[in-house]
């Protein structure tokens, strides 16, 4: 609380989905939790002709979350919060009319004593980020003589490596890198951050965290939903750009990185960049063909409900070759990870919603218990990011009785067992960090570019190679069958259920 100075949050694209569904509820929760400074206000900016009152009504009405809160009897909180919301109509385009915006910002700043500390949140399509930044600069709103100025930008950070560089360069014309906060909401998830703590606050994992003990690493991000109302956007993006390039490579970087010298933003981000740069880029035709699998969901009946195939979704081209499933095998070229395969997949319309990291340990070098059945290669550390957030270790125990029969047992920790802990939603945590000037959980320009360097050749290969197939999979299954061929030996994907302790092969269709 003390660290959060008086400030104004100016949201561009305030009439949009993200503002109503994520930003306003996050700010409301921060307000209820007493995390917002006394002198604080939100100025929503977009082209829709709304008054302050309309905007207050719109965000409260559109956000079912806030409605629920109102019904729960928190109307005092809600009306106090509402009074902090203002709106400015930018006119017909985001190209000009910034004089009146500047006047409004200065007027509100004096009235509410926000100390010239401004955060500009760009929640518009990215093609207008530069013009907004330029206009803010021309109006003197980015000057840091009085107060600080920060900018939060939403993904996508580019469409490929070239456009990501272009976007970074254009923002750098008006803002220093230290002022730019690129949001990746996976970094705001408590359990993603806990990866750092698990690895670097304990002495029991790190000695094993390398090629000597780890056989392979598996990361799954599965969603049971399809593209919902975002078919138009998704069809020009696909799973590789939408999830893999950003959220999943962020997770990979936290698994792969070396211990940082400290926990400051730059110390952690330097190590993450190094980790991303050590991913072996798939360059030749053979490795691209053998190590990447893409798929697209087909219509199916799930529990009696007919679910649309991807090509039938609103806003999607009926001949679309956009992938809704991607699985990639790759290696990390450094001392720690030499020859350890990483298998990473993300998809829509899977049997359940789950994100987890599985560290598969090597079996014991010398097996003395021959009666150990299934257990031989079953030492796993499972870090469950969502749902059922927690950590589970699978290890072998002796079955009571004669002989040395070994059975699998679980050692587990569940976040919800910390009864007093109310997990902050990702956007709450990230907004609060930006308000306090802490960029640790935001992506730096070079991080984003390093991730694109890995992804670009895959995109090009899919676009240009005749050999690159897109496989259909029925909605509600774990993707195309041949994704299993990616895994070496007799390894299989751990197709997890919605509970952390569920065993592979067992899944609940939700
Ligand atoms: N929604 C989500 O869950 C997520 C969104 N994002 C990113 O956040 C940003 C905003 O997303 P979201 O709120 O969903 O988008 P919406 O299309 O719902 O809202 C964008 C807002 O930007 C304004 N806008 C300005 N120019 C245009 C234009 N050419 N076309 C459409 N809108 C325009 C619109 O307001 P007006 O017309 O009133 O000016 C609109 O309200 C995007 O960059 C998106 O990629 C990222 C992750 C998740
Ligand atoms: O960024 C995105 O993330 C969501 C999934 O987020 P989660 O927190 O629910 O796991 C995904 O549905 C969306 O397509 C993507 O743009």
Please explain how this structure is put together:
The chain is α/β, with parallel strands linked by helices and 510 residues long. It folds into 2 domains: 7-183, Rossmann fold, CATH 3.40.50.720; 190-359 and 427-485, Dihydrodipicolinate Reductase, domain 2. The chain is 32% helix and 20% strand. The strands form 3 sheets. It has a 9-stranded mixed β-sheet with strand order 16-15-14-13-7-12-11-8-17. A hairpin with a 7-residue loop joins strand 15 (390-398) and strand 16. Helix 2 (52-62) crosses helix 3 (64-71). It is globular and about 80 Å long. It starts with 6 loop residues before the first strand and ends in a 36-residue tail after the last strand. Substrate binds at residues 185, 189, 223, 242, 348, 353. Keywords: Carbohydrate metabolism, Glucose metabolism, NADP, Oxidoreductase. Pathway: Carbohydrate degradation; pentose phosphate pathway; D-ribulose 5-phosphate from D-glucose 6-phosphate (oxidative stage): step 1/3. Catalyzes the oxidation of glucose 6-phosphate to 6-phosphogluconolactone.
